[in-house]
Specification:
CATH superfamily of the largest domain: Phosphoenolpyruvate-binding domains
Radius of gyration: 21 Å
Shape: globular
Helix content: 40-55%
Distance between the termini: 38 Å
CATH architecture of the largest domain: Alpha-Beta Barrel
Structural class: alpha/beta
Number of domains: 2
CATH class of the largest domain: Alpha Beta
Number of helices: 12
Strand order of the largest sheet: 2-3-4-5-6
Order of helices and strands: HEHEHHEHEHEHEHEHEHHH
Length: 306
């Protein structure tokens, strides 16, 4: 159902619903959903939460993931994803968009837009994707101050501290940072760009009882690891941040190439979601039912053949 009327609205703040999912045990799988339609499809597939990746948001705007999008840019995505599917949304907060006061503004803005959780990383600007080379890190104390600011500003938002330190400071350095961030008020830790199951396991063994998030991105430094394997290693959340965007962008490129080549979309029809499938996904009939002045739509069957 569309989240437009009181009876359909989620009953509690998004952050509380995110905590409840974690309290249920097991591992929480959180796929990336770069827009409202993707969020609806994730919900239909059975997922209970979705992720908004900074890389996916930037790419969808035709920009690189170098920290150039703004808090308001991100809030646009948060609002549409949270409203469309009604699922708790974990949001990539990059470096917090500045120092402590900027982080507080980000937290309040994301909460008001409908976010359930945010992760903040310990890089400095210009930041890079966590799986790229030569990342520059803030001092542990500078990052801890940002985490403390986020915890102080939030009403219900779940705060995850991401550390990119493993690449330059090793597991021990990353663990030391993580412990400091937890003492500053982080609810969970996200060790980024670990390069083997052994590294994931070693990090988790040094953080007993801590809620940990794993990043299963493609074409990065992490080998393919299944959600259940992460759970067995001690992780409680796993994200697939850009997977849906990669699939959609690849299919879109093939479509444009086909139109340029053939002057027609006919060859791509088997790859397309039908009008009826799209309408079912977005709840077209349910929206019509909310307004009795709209005549019920009759979906065309098939296409005229020239």
């Amino acid at each position: 159902m569309p989240y437009l009327v009181a009876a359909d609205l989620p009953p509690s703040p998004a952050g509380e619903r995110f905590r409840a999912l974690l309290a249920a045990g097991g591992i929480l799988g959180i796929p990336g959903a770069q827009n409202g339609l993707a969020a609806l499809q994730a919900r239909a597939a059975g997922f209970s939460a979705v992720y908004l990746s900074g890389a996916a948001m930037s790419a969808s705007m035709g920009l690189p993931d170098l920290g150039v999008i703004t808090v308001e840019d991100v809030c646009f995505f948060v609002r549409q994803v949270a409203r469309a599917a009604g699922l708790p949304v974990l949001v990539d907060g990059d470096t917090g968009y500045g120092e402590a006061l900027n982080v507080m503004n980000m937290v309040r803005s994301f909460e008001e837009a409908g976010a359930a959780a945010v992760h903040i990383e310990d890089q400095i600007l210009p930041k890079k994707c966590g799986h790229l080379n030569d990342k520059k890190l803030a001092t542990p104390e500078e990052m801890a101050a940002k985490v403390a600011a986020a915890a102080k500003a939030r009403r219900h938002l779940f705060v995850i501290a991401r550390t990119d330190a493993a690449a330059s400071e090793g597991i021990e350095g990353a663990v030391a940072r993580a412990k400091l961030y937890l003492s500053a008020g982080a609810d969970a830790i996200f060790p980024e760009a670990l390069t083997s199951p052994a590294m994931f396991r070693a990090f988790a063994e040094r953080m007993p009882g801590v809620l940990l998030l794993a990043n299963m991105t493609e074409f990065g430094r992490t080998p393919f690891i299944a959600a259940e394997e992460f759970r067995e290693m001690g992780y409680r959340m796993v994200i697939w941040p850009v997977s849906s965007l990669r699939v959609a962008a690849h299919a879109q490129a093939e479509l444009y190439a086909a139109i340029q080549r053939d002057g027609s979309t006919h060859a791509m029809l088997p790859r397309m979601q039908t009008r009826a499938e799209l309408y079912a996904t977005i709840g077209y009939e349910e929206y019509e039912a909310l307004d009795a002045s709209i005549v019920k739509t009759v979906v065309p069957v098939g296409m005229p053949q020239g």
